[in-house]
Automatic annotation (TrEMBL), chain A:
Residues 664-673, 722-734 have a biased composition (Acidic residues). The keyword Secreted does not apply. Residues 157-260 form the FYVE-type domain. Residues 14-42 form the C2H2-type domain. Residues 207-224, 612-624 have a biased composition (Polar residues). Residues 475-534 form a coiled coil. Residues 578-594 have a biased composition (Low complexity). This is Rabenosyn-5 isoform X1. Residues 207-235, 578-734 are annotated as: Disordered. Keywords: Coiled coil, Metal-binding, Zinc, Zinc-finger. The keyword Cell inner membrane does not apply.
From TrEMBL, chain B:
InterPro entries: Sec-1-like_dom1, Sec-1-like_dom3a, Sec1-like, Sec1-like_dom2, Sec1-like_sf. Belongs to the STXBP/unc-18/SEC1 family. It holds the Pfam family Sec1. Keywords: Endosome, Golgi apparatus, Membrane, Phosphoprotein, Protein transport, Transport. This is Vacuolar protein sorting-associated protein 45. May play a role in vesicle-mediated protein trafficking from the Golgi stack through the trans-Golgi network. The keyword Metal-binding does not apply. It comes from Balaenoptera acutorostrata (Common minke whale). The gene is VPS45.
Length: 784, 570
């Protein structure tokens, strides 16, 4: 909706808290702040609070507007000249108009009527059951007759001189026959017969519905019944002569009618037409798309901006998956379209219409969703994007670093206690804009080709951070904090243990992964993760045993900050900001992404939610907060999150989608990411939930969403982002991939155009397709 | 107060309540129109409604895998059809919604027909009117009166429509009506009666200022529907005719097959939504922009796709282009046809004189202009007749009235007798004798000064200087100055404060010019919301039919033909 990305409406970005001037980056804001406002007498915190509130309001408005009815959208043109009244389109949403239900009345009347009918049917079926309960073939006629008479009293012959149905007089030649179900009399002509199979069907069905409402499977009863029926039908030939009713039951037309109606109902209940089965599958696929597509679009948007939050291969896998589902939708709807088309009596026009409409709506669905599916950059392009981004980032980083040092100095003067850096979450959600992205910097793909370096493990870093916190807290005599921190430390160590034990597996697997990252592999990984996760919970007790050992392992790093307090300060304040740290990123992307989820999710879930704000605070509160101490107490439990979060951070992206099924926190997680990120400057491609349809309105405010145009300048605004230098080597010829993609797309369009009968378009498209194919061929030739 | 939204909400609720699965929507003729105004096919398809059937259609197949949503007016025929349907159900389960109050006995007979227990829901959802715009509704009744009295059938339909509107907006209003009109009084009483009878339904949360229902009669202002229009929506209706958002373009020379009939709906046509109230000149420039925009996106036939970037851009723009091309070709066709008609019928000149007749009091100049135009061969008999009608209405009692001379001119021009007769019929319908208020000469000093000033300043736009009489009425109403001796309250209680929520209903049909007026009033008056409704929405042609149908003058052969045609249409 166009109204959402109207930058004039909601001010966001790096606004100066004092003069609300919009500054393009964090750095600029900081320098501006220092230049303009450092001398002013002010209550900074109050200012910030008001700013926070403003930002909150703005965000709420944004969110609310998104949820609002579309009534707003058509009115853009008018807003400019409104005089104080309200455009009828803009009238506030109203509740549903008055309604009145007659259902209870209706049911009352119906019940009176139905009861009568149901009783009648049930009576007949019970009698029918009694009549078929014994083995008719091997019972003498006389005995059968006796049983039959016991089921229902027969009307006296003398009472009925004429057939009540046709009015013929009974005589020796026109004999009386009794209905076995109601006992009434009719002549032979008016007599009806119920075959045993039918009887069995009726009785077994009602037994089914009585006994097992839930299980739709066929009861053994009916199987048995049909077998018996086939036997009796063999013997029936001989039995016709002596008029012994082996395989059928005599009854009057009325009873038969009632029973037939009943049979029809049973049939309808049991029979599911093909179209329904196919349709259900179709809907399932559509649901899947609705689930997966937004996720993919988020990924693609991020990747196309050169961010490294997500893994390109994951995105590619997801893309393939989604596309497969689309193909399935297409195939299913096509199948529905042609269902029964060749049958001899052609289906009713309405059936055909239904099939056409389903197909049409499926096409609409695919059109709308598939065509909105932006393409991914190829690996080369991705590298290029990343490089561009990095260049810009680096420039900013140098500047920022300077600023950070300066502010750090100031901060040092005020308080040396590190624990204090935990401040209220409000500030964080505001200022944390760039933080989530920045965190990606240190840990994710950046290490590229490098192997594991022990001390670069984010877990270890956290652990030593926390130990230093504990020390300081002890020094400060805050015992409660020490306790919580220790608890946190223990958890971290558990995780670290876990990680260590898995390293071996990981190493051996990486080889295989590099060779092929096909879907089966992924699938396998997923399962393994799930298993491991389970394991982990079970094995929690085991880790306590090994902990003492690991402690020793960690010790060197624990000491490190002690020796270099200043550096350590930088650590805590500015996690991952220093170049030294960024080089210390732990893992190559693919294996780590497979493993990291475990670490992340095994932690106490509550922590995850706190992480974002806390860690960002640690980076930023140096700027505005002159004395963050005040709020510290409030958030001290959260402080423990500070340490553990950065490590978990990098894995957030990929696993979020990999682990989708069993990650109950994902939704919150994403929300959080956004909440912490209201500041992504206008063209930062943060995975924002606002970008529902057109991917990333912020990113390309002008023009149509050109998804992932790799030729466009990557809008690189995040000053914190550090990119990986070294990429994955040995890519495929990328152009080819892209070409194939395009060819697929064009084929889809052609199909669509044909569907709608726009032949001229088909021609243009076909022409394009040919050219593309040509190019492809040429390229292939060149490559060879 | 948004009527489109109100109906749409009802429909959405029905579909939602029926749960997932394939669905069929069973409707009657009228509800089909009601639904089609608020939902497009593709929109409703997404909600798994794949078939649309008429309840009276005999050719429906048994499809037990479908759920049926029945949205029907509670008429006798519909109930009978439904009873037949339930006796032999064609679908697995039925959700029944009546668009208005249904009698208990009808519910009972339906219940007794439902032996197979296929009915899952029976409700009243009061979407019993055609929602044209958020602030405009219609009942699509053409020819509501016989002489000066209600056609009883139409009176009950109008009552139902109006009460349904009130219920759907959850308003229990005070009622005012135009004293000079017997029909307005009758309708007001009928609505009041329903409110009293169904008092349980009308128990809504009380607002500080109760809503107001104002019932007017077309007779009071016969000028507005006789004028040519220059804003997009009104103009399209005047020159091409809008019927339930549909426009019949089949008479346009050289029209392509898929543009024979187009849909103009502000709900899903952004260009239309943004331009429907703009005047012709503005639309011209907007459509030019639209075209240019489109040209930019349009792939050129010989466009070389030299680089992959080119191809990519092409492919990615394609869906947009496709969507746009539909809108563009539609509006270009419509606007093209409008401008063709304007020049063919010399409408600019005609309209200028019309506006002069409607807004100014210079008899001699007006007469001269009318006479001049009657000599112009480009002016159609239709336009000629309406010029004379306007003249006749305005200068009915003027001392130097020269209507007979103009009638002679009409005859000489070869205008058919039908139209010539209509001149006197229109005067009979909306002449001075009938009007409760003065259309032409300002009454109080303020208005006189205003007009004087207006005369000095000159008019901004010659073609749109006319302001419907409704504007003045509503303006007074909003300011609390509407005279109670002309527009009395029904019942003892009166409104002490200025009204906030206003529903205006015009018996004999509203016009799009009035809809625009109400739209602008809504936008310029803070705190006031006005919804306009009419038995129908008129253009000149349909208005003349309405006048004919009322059979006011002499019951000639022609008029009775029209009446019977209208009757059969119902």
């Amino acid at each position: 909706m166009a109204s959402l990305d109207d930058p004039g409406e909601v001010r966001e970005g790096f606004l100066c808290p004092l003069c609300l001037k919009d500054l393009q980056s964090f750095y600029q804001l900081q320098s501006h702040y220092e230049e303009e406002h450092s001398g002013e007498d002010r209550d900074v915190k109050g200012q910030i609070k008001s700013l926070v509130q403003k930002a909150r309001k703005a965000k709420n408005r944004l969110l609310k507007r998104e949820g609002d009815d579309r009534a707003e959208s058509g009115t853009q043109g008018y807003e400019s000249f409104s005089y104080g009244g309200v455009d009828p389109y803009m009238w506030e949403p109203q509740e549903l108009g008055a309604v009145r239900s007659h259902l209870s009345d209706f049911k009352k009347h119906r019940a009176a009527r139905i009861d009568h009918y149901v009783v009648e049917v049930n009576k007949l079926i019970i009698r029918l059951e009694k009549l078929t309960a014994f083995d008719r073939t091997n019972t003498e006629s006389a005995k059968i007759r006796a049983i039959e008479k016991s089921v229902v009293p027969w009307v006296n012959d003398q009472d009925v001189p004429f057939c009540p149905d046709c009015g013929n007089k009974f005589s020796i030649r026109n004999r009386r026959h009794h209905c076995r179900l109601c006992g009434s009399i009719m002549c032979k002509k008016c007599m009806e017969l119920i075959s045993l199979p039918l009887a069995n069907k009726l009785t077994s069905a009602s037994k089914d519905s009585l006994s097992t409402h839930t299980s739709p499977s066929q009861s053994p009863n009916s199987v048995h019944g049909s077998r018996r029926a086939s036997i009796s039908s063999v013997s029936s030939v001989s039995s016709v002569l002596d008029e012994k009713d082996d395989d059928r039951i005599r009854c009057c037309t009325h009873c038969k009618d009632t029973l037939l109606k009943r049979e029809q109902q049973i049939d309808e209940k049991e029979h599911t037409p093909d179209i329904v089965k196919l349709y259900e599958k179709l809907r399932l696929c559509m649901e899947k798309v609705d689930q997966k597509a937004p996720e993919y679009i988020r990924m693609a948007a991020s990747l196309n901006a050169g961010e490294t939050t997500y893994n390109l291969e994951h995105a590619n896998d997801l893309r393939v998956e989604v596309q497969k589902v689309y193909e399935l939708i297409d195939a299913l709807s096509k199948k529905i379209l042609t269902l029964d088309l060749k049958q001899d009596p052609p289906p009713h026009p309405n059936t055909l219409r239904l099939q056409r409409m389903i197909r049409y709506s499926a096409t609409l669905f695919v059109q709308e969703k598939l065509l909105g599916l932006m393409s991914l950059p190829t690996k080369e392009q991705f590298e290029e994007l990343k490089k561009k981004r990095k260049q810009e980032v680096e420039r900013k980083k140098i500047l920022e670093r300077r600023a950070a040092l300066e502010s750090q100095r100031r901060l040092e003067e005020r308080h040396s206690d590190l624990v204090s850096h935990a401040t209220n979450g409000e500030v964080v959600s505001l200022r944390g804009g760039p933080a989530p992205l920045r965190k990606a910097e240190g840990w994710l793909p950046l290490s590229g080709g490098q192997g594991q370096i022990e001390d670069s493990d984010p877990l270890l870093q956290q652990i030593h951070n926390i130990t230093s916190f504990i020390r300081q807290a002890k020094a400060a005599g805050r015992m409660d904090e020490v306790r919580t921190l220790q608890e946190n430390l223990r958890q971290l160590q558990d995780e670290y243990d876990q990680q260590q034990t898995e390293k071996a597996i990981e190493l051996s697997r990486r080889q295989a992964e590099e060779e092929d990252l096909q879907r089966e592999q992924l699938q396998m990984l997923r399962e393994r993760e799930r298993e491991r996760e389970r394991e982990q919970f079970q094995a929690a007790s085991l880790h306590t045993r090994t902990r003492s050992l690991d402690f020793r392992e960690i010790r060197p790093f624990q000491l490190e900050p002690g020796r270099e307090p200043r550096d350590h300060l930088a650590h805590a304040l500015d996690l991952g900001c220093s170049p030294a740290q960024s080089s210390a990123a732990p893992k190559t992307p693919s294996p780590s992404s497979a493993l990291e989820p475990i670490r992340v999710w095994s932690g106490p879930p509550a922590l995850d939610q706190e992480f974002f704000p806390q860690s960002t605070t640690s980076q930023h509160n140096e700027v505005p907060s002159l004395n963050p101490f005040d709020e510290e107490d409030l958030s001290s439990p959260a402080a423990e999150g500070t340490a553990s979060r950065p490590a978990a951070e990098p894995s957030l992206g990929p696993p979020a989608c990999v682990l989708k099924e069993y990650n109950p926190f994902e939704e919150e997680e994403e929300e959080e990411a956004v909440a912490g990120n209201p500041f992504t400057s206008p063209d930062s491609p943060a995975p924002s939930p606002f970008d529902e349809e057109d991917g990333h309105p912020h990113q390309r405010p002008s023009g149509p969403p050109v998804p992932g145009n790799p030729f466009e300048e990557a809008p690189c605004t995040n000053p914190f982002e550090v990119d990986s230098e070294s990429g994955q080597e040995g890519e495929e010829p990328i152009e080819e991939e892209l070409l194939l993609q395009q060819i697929d797309n064009i084929k889809a369009y052609i199909f669509d155009a044909k569907q709608c009968g726009r032949l001229d378009e088909v021609e243009v498209l076909t022409e394009n397709l040919r050219e593309l194919k040509h190019t492809l061929a040429k390229q292939k030739g060149g490559a060879d | 107060m948004n009527v489109v939204f109100a109906v749409k909400q009802y429909i959405s609720k029905m579909i939602e309540d029926s749960g997932p699965g394939m669905k069929v929507l069973l409707m009657d003729k009228e509800t089909t129109g009601i639904v089609s105004m608020v939902y497009t096919q593709s929109e409703i398809l997404q909600k798994e409604v794949y078939l649309f059937e008429r309840i009276d259609s005999q050719n429906r197949e048994i499809m037990k895998h479908l759920k049926a949503i029945c949205f029907l007016r509670p008429t006798k025929e519909n109930v009978d059809y439904l009873i037949q349907e339930l006796r032999r159900p064609k679908y697995s389960i039925y959700f029944i919604y009546f668009s208005n109050v249904i009698s208990k006995s009808d519910v009972k007979s339906l219940a007794e027909a439902d032996e197979q227990e296929v009915v899952a829901e029976v409700q009243e959802f009061y979407g019993d009117y055609i929602a044209v715009n958020p602030h405009l509704f219609s009942l699509n009744i053409l020819g509501c009166c016989q002489g000066r009295n209600w056609d009883p059938v139409q009176l009950s339909r109008a009552t139902q429509g109006l009460t349904a509107l009130l219920l759907s907006l959850k308003k229990c209003p005070m009622i005012r009506y135009q004293l000079s009109s017997e029909t307005a009084k009758r309708l007001a009483e009928c609505v009041k009666q329903v409110i009293t009878k169904e008092y349980e339904l009308f128990e809504f949360r009380r607002t500080e200022v109760p809503p107001l229902l104002l019932i007017l009669d077309r007779c009071d202002d016969a000028i507005t529907p006789l004028l040519n229009q220059w804003t997009y929506q009104a103009m399209v209706h005047e020159l091409l005719g809008i019927n339930n958002n549909r426009i019949d373009l089949s008479r346009v020379p050289g029209i392509s097959k898929d543009l024979r009939e187009v849909v103009l709906s502000a709900e899903n046509d952004e260009f239309y939504a943004n331009n429907m109230y703009l005047n012709f000149a503005e639309i011209g420039s907007n459509i030019k922009n639209l075209m240019e925009d489109f040209q930019k996106k349009k792939p050129k036939e010989q466009q070389k796709l030299e680089s992959i970037a080119d191809m990519k851009a092409f492919v990615e723009n394609y869906p947009q282009f496709k969507k746009m091309s539909g809108t563009v070709s539609k509006h270009v066709t419509v606007v093209g046809e409008l401008s063709r008609l304007v020049s063919e019928r010399n409408l600019l000149e005609v309209s200028e004189v019309e506006q002069e007749l409607a807004c100014q009091n210079d008899h001699s100049s007006a007469l001269q202009n009318v006479k001049r135009l009657l000599q112009n061969p480009k002016v159609t008999e239709f336009d000629a007749a309406r010029l004379v009608m306007l003249y006749a209405l305005h200068y009915e009692r003027h001392s130097s009235n020269s209507l007979p001379g103009l009638m002679m001119d009409l005859r000489n021009k070869g205008v058919s007798e039908k139209y010539r007769k209509l001149v006197s019929t229109v005067v009979e319908y909306g002449g001075k004798r009938v009007r409760g208020s003065d259309l032409f000469s300002p009454k109080d000093a303020v208005a006189i000064t205003k007009q004087f000033l207006k005369g000095l300043k000159g008019v901004e736009n010659v073609y749109t200087q006319h302001q419907p009489f409704l504007y003045e009425t509503l303006d007074h109403l909003i300011k609390g100055k509407l005279k109670e001796n002309l527009y009395p309250y029904l019942g003892p209680s009166t409104l002490r404060d200025r009204p906030q929520d206003i529903i205006v209903f015009i018996i004999g049909g509203a016009t799009y010019e009035e809809a625009l007026t109400v739209y602008n009033l809504n936008r310029t008056t803070p705190g006031v919301r006005i919804v306009l409704g009419g038995t129908t929405v008129h253009n000149t042609k349909s208005f003349l039919e309405e006048v004919l149908a009322s059979g006011l003058h002499s019951r000639s052969k022609e008029s009775s033909q029209v009446t019977s045609r209208l009757a059969s249409r119902r």
